[in-house]
Fold:
Amino acid sequence: MSLTADVTGTAARPQATSQLPVTVAAVFAVMLLAAVFQLPDPMLRHDDYPALLADPSLFYSKTLTEGRWVNYLWHLRGLVTPAWLNFLAYQLLWAIYLGCLVHNAFGREAALWQRVMVALIAGLALPWVLISLWFNTLLLGLAIVALYAWLTTRLSERSCRWLMLLFVPVSLMAYTTYPFLILALSLTRAETNRSARDLAGLLALFIASFALGMLTIYSLNYAVHGVFGVPMAEWRNPSPATDLASLLENGRLALDYLVALVRRGAYGNTGLALLLAGVLAVAVWSVLRRDRWRGLYMLSGVGLGLGLVCLQVIRTGIDMPLRSGGFVWLYGAVFLGLFAIALQDAGRARLSRNLLFSLTAMSVIFAGMTHYFASEWQRLSRTMADELGAGSGLIFVTGTYLSLEAARKSDLQKDHSVVFRLEHLTGRPVVMCESQPQECAHLPKEMRAGLQDSDKPYEVRQIEGASVLMLSPIALRKAKLEPTQPQRGAD
Structure:
């Protein structure tokens, strides 16, 4: 079977199209299985609570510093739905995108089970699991991306390419690397006539669409904030390149980012990272050997995406989190799927099946572990809330949240995570004494000092109509398991 798509061969397409809902349903079901510990009470990052509560005032500053105007519109919706429902909707939209991606990428080349497995390998990669913890904020943006993905299964390739002029700018105002998901749908598409001229035209159209998105953001910021641009927030610790020395230093940061994608993308296991990189290299070589232009199309998407991300690092000197590079896994999964098909065509069907089964099983298991540890804080905080009760008085938190192993496992980024979570569960205002000592000056000294020499992670005491949640004042130096490094908000 040739890896080169037959553009005119449409006889079998209705059958392939009819399998799309089944593909989406299967991918959705397995992703929910991997996230089973999150389903009843999904983990929320501290800066995802404004989206959950539909509070635009807490998000407004990000329109200036991040250009997230689509997300801001989502905060204006007024309707508040429960976190578990939003999480299910996010996972469904992600399954729709993945189903459409593999549907277009393999056409009639792959069986249903092969498509499902490739979609899971792509969609359960660590970067996508991490970014899913901002599911409330990103729900509208992902819906836009999923809509475009669905349109690519219904419209001609030419129409879909021109639609990038609309969908790339809009998706850019939801999340910086969402446009790369849109580009991936074109570059991995099976049914296309590939050539150097076509590739150059496609990339040029994407870059123009991306530039249009930036111009739109700059214009909105100027009209509303009086600033033509996107000034970096101070919490990102920007260090713009101003001379050769700073340029070289920021270049080192970009290189560190690329290395981190490989190593941390394999859950920090260097051996596993090398093994996966080796398998992927063989897959890329196989595709290039059988269909050079198909491989070059996908490699150009990886190169352009990483190039733009690294350019941002070099220009601003900020650290980019692992989740910003998730688009690389989309191309990697398609390469692996095409390699598995090539093995099958060469009479090595068992090896082909074992390869996809092994990679899919690993993706599901590691994603499940990440979801489990990410929800540690949810489980502990529910117990805390039960002990605190649903009274009307203040809740004072003494000690540091960094003393909680659950907080470290769930990668809590700020004490706002504790405030928002306990307020959401109890309906009572929360004061963090570590960052607001003046508000806690009236508490007895032994309470202000926090929990001392106890085997318990916390203790609850009542005082004059208020509650005191006592934590240890000593931060954990090292958690038993840290599935991710601390990240600072959705970039």
Notes: The first helix runs from residue 13 to 18. The two ends are 42 Å apart (CA to CA).
